Amino acid sequence: MQFFVDLHTHTIASDHAYSTIVEYVNQAQKCGIQMFATTDHGPDLEDGPHKWHFNNLKVVPRICDGIAVLRGIEANILFDGNIDVESYQYKNLDIVLAGFHPNNPPTNPENHLHLYKKVMMKGKVDILSHPGSANYPCDYEELLVEAKERNVAIEINSSSDVNTRFGSHDNCIKIAKLAKKIGNTVSLGTDAHISYYLGQFEPALEICKEADIKEDQIINRSPLAVLDFLESRGHAPITEIRDFFSKN
Q: Where are the extended beta strands (E) located within 60-131?
């Protein structure tokens, strides 16, 4: 399996990342990535960008030097089951990931599941990021059944247990096998914090292989498949990107 879309990346707008959007575009040209989502951390994280960062993503061209760029966020799941995206901001975002981060310290599996469900119920989160995190375990089968019902994609994250979230590998395997059984939509994300990691899906693909997840279950199989998924979630069509890939 070869994939040309990376749906989880971070730029220097998140202080613990080290590349710009332009550097990601340059790297995409080198490594064969056709489209990526820029998904910096939401502002509730200590070193996350100010909310104006997300308001102003509209200045980022849809197509940058032949590479499609989705304007996104990796939001933080908060204590009350909300995420750190204000209602007026959604119109500026093509894609919304959400996951647990250190601004919301771990509690117990029951509460983690409750917060995941509450977030999905609000209908604004497209992808649950790194749900296999060892610090935030929960009843994964119940989580994935809920995600399937609400058309929320489950991420298989290439950085988990490789660059961060050490101890997550077994959880990721469990989640992938459940996703295979339940039929969840799967998203691949490198969670790159430097442009050189863009498109490095090998750790995630090893997990998919062990779980026997096929290409047709993974939205990253093409830019148009990603756009179809986002439209199925209620996002407005991104005509410039769709036309670009329909003609190329």
A: 63-64, 67-76, 95-99, 127-128
Q: If we measure between CA atoms, which residue out of 51, 119, 41 comes closest to residue 86?
A: 51
183-207 per-position pLDDT tens digit: 999 999 999 999 999 999 999 999 9
CA nearest 69: which of 98, 99, 40?
40
For the segment 141-183, what is each residue's pLDDT rounded down to a tens digit? Answer: 999 999 999 999 999 998 765 667 667 799 999 999 999 999 9
What value does the mean pLDDT of the chain take? 95
Cα separation, 32 vs 47, whole angstroms: 30
| pTM score of the predicted model | 0.96
CA 59 to each of CA 17, 40, 63, 160, 177: distance values in angstroms, whole numbers, following the listed order: 21, 16, 11, 31, 40
Q: Please choose, from the candidates 48, 46, 45, 44, the residue with its C-alpha nearest in 3D space to the C-alpha of residue 11.
A: 48
Counting other chains too, the contacts that 117-122 makes at CB distance below 8 Å and 24 or more residues apart are 117/143, 117/146, 118/81, 118/82, 119/77, 119/81, 119/82, 119/83, 120/146, 120/147, 120/150, 120/152, 121/150, 122/82
Q: Which long-range contacts (CB under 8 A, 24 or more apart) does 121-124 make?
A: 121/150, 122/82, 123/150, 123/234, 124/83, 124/85, 124/90, 124/96
Residues 6 or more apart whose CB falls under 8 angstroms from that of 199 comprise 3, 4, 6, 27, 28, 31, 32, 33, 190
Work out the number of other CB atoms within 10 angstroms of the CB of residue 59: 6
User: What integer pLDDT is reported at residue 166 of this predicted model?
Assistant: 63
